[in-house]
Design goal:
It is a single chain. This protein is an alpha+beta fold. The chain has four domains: 159 residues, GAF domain (Beta-Lactamase, 2-Layer Sandwich), CATH 3.30.450.40; 111 residues, Beta-Lactamase; 168 residues, Beta-Lactamase (2-Layer Sandwich), CATH 3.30.450.40; 221 residues, PPM-type phosphatase domain (Phosphatase 2c, domain 1, 4-Layer Sandwich), CATH 3.60.40. It is built from 19 helices and 28 strands. The strands form five sheets. Strands 1, 2, 3, 4, 5, 6 and 7 form a seven-stranded mixed sheet that branches. The chain has a six-stranded mixed sheet with strand order 9-8-12-11-10-13. A five-stranded antiparallel sheet has the order 15-14-18-17-16, sandwiched between helices. Strand 17 and strand 18 form a beta hairpin.
């Protein structure tokens, strides 16, 4: 059993303590890679903050992970449980997007980091593919203990007024230090290496060359000093092939020995054998015959691409393509494009423009100069601007320097804003729908391969934006319909402070069956209702409108009679959908409330001193099932200063979350907001819901505070 004691002493800065804690978890679990994500308060994105075991560029596609993204760390945080993936097959089955971008052998664990009811982030650990398909009890204990320690560090820093926040880029922890050999040992090692056949080379974890013996230099045809400190696929043109870097990635991520053969022009075949560990990669280089010939006993796939390219942009492109299949709104497409393209191609500014009624419109921007194209926003397509030109002609324009751009468009007015830029048409089925603008802060020559890649990316974005435009139009229609089915405003009732919120489901049409209502009856009485029709589509919305109308028409009658009448109406309609409803008669003069429920979650009642409880109501059958169903009532005191929280189950339900614990958490948030007005409390509870639930169900919330007739 490993020792899970606190990993660091309580000294040093918060970031130093956090780095030490992450390194400690990696050592205790034997993980080869550790990735710590933080979730700042009121943020819905997990930010990669600390990275260990791989260089920063390999984690580029994963530096920002939306909380509801289908990746292991997001699921671990949202579901508040350990996610374990015992191999590549399981990864591909459960997380195909992740498996597409990381086609290597490894096992993965992702665990949430929490303190109390606060989600603070997640920890991802990778082990080599040789790891057992299950975590051992000791490893699981070390993961849980490590996440607890990290959570406490984050909580203590926040309590001290110095919260630890993610930086613009993750901090990459140094590789483990090795004891330097003595002079005699170093000499023996050097002699040993020289006696080995072939060449010997060493790479750091980031792929840079740290050692090259004479034999290796001769085989590569270089002087050792010319390649030390460089990446081989950048300093040796004939190694500039995505497959070469892919083998390096496989060795680093999977800590797995790998081999491949490459043709060194004009006719020398070389085989490279990579042997990785936590400190770097040892490489053996030996001459070989052309793969596939009889004297080649173990041929490796040849890599003879005549077209130089870079693996990193290709990986970002793959990640972008996979991610865009799940992006539904225009803003999602633009955010994904910024996250993936800008670091891969070292772009400083990205702007997406579309054509609307014959004019340019900026849909979104990211980077150093997000207002770069504001001066062209609203310009007619007939204007002499580069963005309009590529949209109308469908031909991309590449400008390696500002001088080139100024010669083509003297009136562009982009001096001091760009040093190089690209204008790419966004085309769908031969129809231009917009322009993609990429700007750089220094001159940037565009090679043939990079031009082809950027043009392909523009094509992907165009298709995604076209789909997103259709979704946005449908979403606007759905929200408009939903808004007209729900109360436009709540009535102003003397003695009550009220607030309401409605959040549509993140799945389906963005319209559903949740509803709420507040009805003035006379000077001292009012009625409140909340309900939930099964489904997230137009049928649920239509039935919701009928239920709300029926409740409104019967309001003023005793609560049991209101629900009984509505139930008989729904039974006659036979809609085939379940409907829950809670109805409350508010007697402000008598300082009491009478309630009845038809299978709906019981409301919270907060007393003037802050004590908050879930009301215990007699059960009633869902509406529309049995026309003879009865709905017993319950009466509770409603003193001045007391408040009710009515909600639908979408506010508290999430996969893997205990419903009673979720309601208790909601009650705690409601109790802590004692001094706030109901509108502020509604915002607090909605933020809680966004962080605690999956967003797969609609949410309706109605808050009522009895202030008394003086207000």
């Amino acid at each position: 059993m490993r020792d899970h004691a606190a990993p660091v002493a309580a000294t040093g800065s918060g970031t130093e303590l956090l780095d030490s804690a992450v390194a400690h978890v990696a050592r205790e679990t034997g993980a080869s890679v550790a990735m710590l994500y933080l979730l700042p308060r009121n943020d819905t994105t997990l930010h990669l903050t600390v990275l260990s075991g791989v260089p920063g560029q390999l984690a580029g596609p994963w530096t920002k992970v939306p909380r509801f993204s289908p990746v292991p760390v997001a699921d671990a945080v949202r579901l508040r449980c350990l996610i374990w993936l015992g191999g590549q097959e399981e990864l591909a089955r459960r997380y195909p997007r992740t498996a597409l971008v990381l086609p290597y052998r490894f096992t993965l664990g992702a665990a949430p980091i929490r303190t109390g009811a606060t989600d603070r982030g997640g920890l991802v650990l990778l082990w080599p593919g040789s790891h057992a398909p299950q975590l051992s009890p000791e490893e699981r204990g070390a993961v849980i203990a490590g996440c607890h320690d990290i959570g406490m560090l984050l909580q203590q820093a926040e309590s001290a007024g110095t919260p630890i926040l993610p930086g613009p880029q993750p901090r990459v922890l140094p590789t483990p230090e090795q004891t330097a050999p003595g002079p005699a040992e170093a000499l023996a090692v050097a002699e040993f290496v020289q006696r080995l056949p072939g060449g010997s080379c060493a790479l750091a974890i980031d792929g840079s060359v740290t050692f090259l013996n004479g034999a290796a230099a001769a085989l590569l045809g270089v002087r050792a000093e010319d390649v030390l400190g460089t990446l081989p696929w950048e300093s040796l043109p004939w190694l500039d092939n995505p497959a070469v870097e892919d083998h390096y990635r496989a060795a680093v991520i999977g800590r797995r020995q790998t081999s491949f053969a490459v043709l060194r022009p004009p006719d020398q075949w070389l085989t490279f054998h990579l042997f990785p560990d936590d400190t770097g990669i040892s490489v053996r280089i030996v001459p070989t015959s052309e793969p596939g010939t009889p004297d080649d006993p173990a041929p490796a796939p040849p890599m003879t691409s005549a077209v130089p390219s870079r693996a990193t942009p290709l990986y970002h492109l793959m990640h972008l393509a996979a991610s865009l299949t799940e992006a539904v709104a225009t803003r999602d497409v633009i955010e994904l494009a910024g996250d993936q393209l800008m670091p891969a191609f070292r772009i400083q500014t990205l702007v997406v423009m579309t054509s609307v009624e014959g004019r340019l419109r900026v849909e979104g921007a990211r980077g150093t100069h997000p207002g770069l194209m504001d001066r062209f926003d609203g310009a007619p397509l007939t204007s002499g601007t580069p963005a309009a030109h590529v949209l109308t002609t469908g031909s991309p324009d590449f400008y390696a320097s500002f001088e080139e751009l100024e010669r083509a468009y003297p009136s562009a007015g982009l001096r001091n804003a760009v040093a190089a830029c690209v204008f790419l048409p966004l085309i769908v089925s031969g129809r231009p729908i917009g322009s993609l603008v990429l700007a750089y802060d220094r001159p940037h020559p565009f090679g043939t391969e990079e031009r082809a890649l950027l043009t392909s990316i523009a094509g992907l974005l165009a298709q995604a934006l076209d789909r997103a435009g259709l979704y946005d139009a449908k979403d606007r229609l759905a929200h408009s319909l939903q808004a007209h089915l729900l109360p436009q405003t709540l009535p102003d009732i003397a003695g009550l402070d009220v607030a309401a919120r409605y959040l549509p489901s993140t799945r389906g049409m963005g319209i559903g069956g949740d509803f709420y209502d507040l009805i003035r009856l006379d000077e001292t009485t009012a009625a409140a209702a909340i309900g939930d029709v099964q489904g997230h589509n137009e049928n649920a919305a239509a039935l919701m409108g009928q239920v709300r109308t029926a409740v409104h028409a019967s309001a003023g009658a005793p609560p049991d009679e209101v629900l009984a009448r509505t139930n008989r109406l729904l039974t006659d309609l036979d809609p085939g959908l379940f409907t829950s409803c809670l109805y409350i008669h508010l007697d402000l003069a008598g300082q009491r409330a009478v309630l009845a429920t038809a299978g709906h979650p019981a409301p919270l009642l907060r007393q003037p001193d802050g004590q908050t409880d879930v009301l215990d109501l007699p059960p009633g059958l869902l509406l529309g099932i049995d026309p003879a169903a009865r709905y017993p009532t319950a009466e509770v005191p409603l003193p001045l200063g007391a408040a009710l929280a009515l909600f639908t189950d979408g506010l508290v339900e999430a996969p893997g979350v205990d419903i009673d614990e979720a309601v208790a958490d909601l009650a705690e948030h409601f109790a802590l907001a004692l001094e706030q007005d109901m509108d502020s409390v509604a915002e607090t509870l909605v933020r809680y819901a966004k962080g605690a639930t999956s967003g797969s169900d609609d949410i309706a919330l109605l808050l009522i505070n009895a202030l008394g007739t003086e207000g």
